[in-house]
Every structure is written in structure tokens, then in C-alpha cells.
Amino acid sequence: MRIQTFSILAGSEACNARCPFCISKMTPPLGVDLPEPNVNWRNFKVACRLAKQSGVTTAMFTGKGEPTLFPKQITRYLNEMAEFQFPLIELQTNGILIAEKSAVYKEHLKDWYERGMTTIAVSIVHYDPEKNREVYLPHKKSYIDLPGLIAFLHNTGFSVRLTCILASGFIDNAERTTTLIGFAKKLGVEQLTLTPVNKPDESESFETWKWTNTHHLTGEERVEIIEYLKKHGHKILHLPHGAIVYDVNGQNVCMNNCLSVNPDPEELRNLIFFPDGHLRYYWQYPGSIIL
Ligand code: SF4
After folding, report:
1. Which of the ends of the chain has fewer CB neighbours closer than 10 A, N or C?
2. What GO molecular-function term can you cite, just one (predicted)?
3. Half-sphere exposure at residue 268, Cβ-oriented, CA atoms within 13 angstroms
4. Ligand 1 centre and the CA of 40: distance in Å?
5. CB of 197 closer than 6 angstroms to any ligand 1 atom
């Protein structure tokens, strides 16, 4: 059994953004410190041991909400997993708190860097700040200073990945993909990942279902972007879960196909640790439980 990524669900379902494609609609009260969610630390060690013995090279902090709302919990996770020495440790974030409270987060980032974190993956939907505001911060007048955030993360020593959700009306054609790649390259972003927005067959929230159904890439839009990457990029890696990594004019670009159920049972894609101590290998199947 081969596992590529060890995903650690940090934080809770709380998030400081308001993405219309997200099912986590729990928004934290402003100015109030949220109680840190409990973690089954004993099972976390078991998960780390299994990940290590399965050959995992990348541990990724992600969440159903925004992990940076609980920075001390991330530090504790890093302490607990230190003995397993995962070479690559990544944090998936919307970047908002790091950008808005950089003085506070500078100290956390330094701590995380010293404890082995290598990459900060910032999710976006566009290079245009107004488009990002519309999706992430519709309740605010402006979006964060994304170039400033990237420079700040670089200065702290991190490698930066921009994870762009592809959606109709946002990054949905070859021209906008070209501009996005140029934007990433200009800012020295190490990796750019393109992930088409998921259209769930059903969703707990009608609003989410409606938005994703209206904005998922059409077949033509998806083909146009893929053809552009094939024509202008040099294929450098074919990942087992179907994603393809290209070098486009010196910029690393990964086109994710969102195939979350791996057709090859010998090549499991993910090992996912849930804070309650459960361990699964698929997000969408509660039955894919290991312990
Ligand atoms: S940043 Fe992530 S968790 Fe937060 S609302 Fe957007 S998609 Fe959901």
C-alpha cells in the first residue's frame, strides 16, 4: 500500500472566510478566541507511525475550516510529529489571518519553520484582488495584500504554493490562465496548483450546491485550459492520482483533476487524520476507516 499524503485536519469547522463553494459555514465571532478543539493525541502518534511506515513524504495541515485560527494547536501538532521527521510539511490556508495580523503570526510562522514546516499553500480564485474579495471576503471592503503576504512568507523562509480554485467567471480560459501563471511567476511563487471547483451531486447547503453548479468549469473551459498547458508547458510529472505537473515558462503548474477516488487500489492517495482520533483514506467515504 502506498500513501502519498498524510492529511491532518487541524482546527475546527470555523473559518474567517465566506467562500460560496464551501460547506463549512461556521463563522467565528469577531474578537473572541475560540476554544481549541480537542485532539486525540494518542491516535495522532499512531497515525504518524502508520504514515511513516507507509512511505509518506508529505504531511499537510488542512481543515474543514481555517487551521490558522488555532495557531497553538498547529505548534502542538508539529511538536508531536517531530520524531517522525516528515521531509515536507505543508499548511493549507486562506492566508487572511497571516496577512491581517502579521505581527502576531510572524512569531508563529518562525516557530513552525523551526519545527520543520516547509510550505504554505494559499488558496485563491484569481489574480484580481476584487475577485478574491468577492469569494473570500464578501463582507469586507477589500481583500488582503496577496503579493505582500507572499513576500512575507518568503522572507520567513517558506516555499509558497498558490492553490487556485478554477471556476466559471473566474479563471476559466487560456487567457486568464496565462495571466495567472505570469502573476505567480512575477511573485516568485514556487508552485501553482489549479483545481476545478467540485460540483457535488448533493450538498447540505442549497446555496453551496447552487453556486458550484453554476460555476463549475464547462467541458469546453476545462479542455481549453488543459490544451493550453499541453501546448505551452513541458510535462514534468504525472502524479498517481491523475494530476499533471507542467513547467510553463519556468513556472511550476499542477493541474489537478480532482479525482479523489483512486482507480488503482494499490496506490492510495491519502491518509487522513481526524482530530477525534479516526483515520481514513477517503474524505468522502466515512466507511473508508482504518481506526
Ligand atoms: S477558506 Fe476554505 S474553509 Fe474557509 S470558507 Fe473558504 S473554502 Fe471554506
Report:
1. C
2. catalytic activity
3. 20
4. 24
5. no
**Contact predicate 11/67, CB 8 Å:** yes
pLDDT above 90 (res 111): yes
Residues 6+ away with beta carbon under 8 Å from 177: 171, 194, 225, 228, 229
Q: In the prediction, which pLDDT does 260 show?
A: 46
Residue 252 is inside which H or E element, if any?
strand 251-255
pLDDT digits (tens, 9 = 90+) for 226-270: 999 999 999 999 987 789 999 999 999 999 975 444 445 555 568
Average pLDDT, the chain: 90
Q: How many Å lie between the centroid of ligand 1 and the Cα of residue 1?
A: 31
Cell reading at 127: 489574480
Residue-range domain boundaries for the chain = 5-280
Give the cell for residue 1. Answer: 500500500
Does the beta carbon of 19 sit less than 6 angstroms from any atom of ligand 1?
yes
For atom 7 of ligand 1, the residue with the nearest CA is 22
The finding on whether 193 has its CB within 6 A of some atom of ligand 1 is: no
The pLDDT confidence band at residue 221, using thresholds 50, 70 and 90, is: very high
Report DSSP letters for 218-245, one per residue: PHHHHHHHHHHHHHHEEEEEE-TTS-EE
Domain 5-280: CATH architecture, name and number where available? Alpha-Beta Barrel (3.20)
Cα–Cα distance measured from residue 204 to residue 258, given in angstroms and rounded to the nearest whole number: 20
Q: Give the integer Cα–Cα distance in Å for 80 and 42.
A: 10
Is the overall model pTM greater than 0.85, yes or no?
yes
Amino acid at 90: E
Ligand 1 pocket, mutate which of 94, 136, 144, 198 (most atoms under 8 A from CB): 94
Name the one residue in this structure whose C-alpha cell is 491581517.
100
Ligand 1 centroid to Cα of residue 242, in Å, is 24
17 ligand 1 Cβ < 6 A: yes
